[in-house]
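Journal club prep, notes for RB
We'll compare a predicted complex against what the paper describes. Inputs for the zinc ion case:
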Amino acid sequence: MPIPSRRRRHGPARRRRGLPLRLAGGALALALIAVVAGPAVRTPLVPDGLADAARAMGPLPACRYDDVLTSPRSYGHWAVTLVDTILRVPRTYEPPDLVSVSQAGIEGSGKVRQVMIVDLAALAEAAREAGAGLGVQSAYRSYDKQRATFRDWVARYGREEALRFSARPGHSEHQLGVAVDFRSESGGSPFEGDWGETKAGTWMAANAWQYGFVMSYPKGKLAVTCYEYESWHFRYVGRELAGAMHDSGQTVREFLWANFTTAVVPPPSGAPLPTYAPTESAVPSDPATASPEVTPDPTPAPTPAPTASPEPTASPSPPAPEPSPPPVGSPVGAISPEAAAVGIGVILALIAAVALVARRGWFGAVL
Ligand SMILES: [Zn+2]
């Protein structure tokens, strides 16, 4: 007799199964939440205290171009915010305390963050006393200013070449408001000749760290800084951190990545370079290929440096204020492992839900 038997199955049995089903539903919901929130939960937040913030997030990523938002990046974390050819700050990043460098009693113009004025003044004074007077060639640059600068270089040299000496917007330490391109007090561009060999340049290389400034792109460190040697470009990180970096022998990028950076950098996907500038359709944006059609330039033809090789010492040094990223790897544009995990998790959870529903009229038991 079909009817009584159905009643038996769906009567008392239903009550007994109600609890397990509710538990199953709850577990399913929790699993969904855990899967969806997975990457956020796994991304550690950086506490205010520097000591507490120290953490390593894995090996330093190989040099390549990408557009991953860096972390930490609050204005209070100015000392430990890392930007490079991969990590960036948003367009809206504009420090709230920018002041004129003249407040530090140093020659030149531009703005830096108020937090570094005292040490910038001390640096300038000490250099002057050592007979190595300093001036400021360039300091804070907004996202839009950097974009215009980069586009200008692209228009003049082509994208491939421009990328060798100009940072894409969002990726420049100058946008942080704590980077300074120095020159000698007597004037003259530091980008011509080897400023590192001048009195001021030599003094800075040896002493700047004692005042909280570190050379971001030292000679011979292309493979880890992803930029050519820039004797004039210094970043202020404060005296304590500068001392620690100096003692460690690490570059800014290595040190910040190993100790403070919490951004998760996905592996390279092989996708094309992100586009920023006027389309350079001639060359399939492959940074490993030296652009053959660089405009008339006094410098010799650029050596197509192979990926991650040591710095091409004989390479041309373009007269530019921005670092030149090495032609390396390929950027990411596709799905990160976390995103893939989330996607798979959601699909599995949905399949499980559908299976439950299909097995029996489940909504009534759970809702
Ligand atoms: Zn610079």
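Talking point for the session: The chain has two domains: 2-42+335-366, 50-259.
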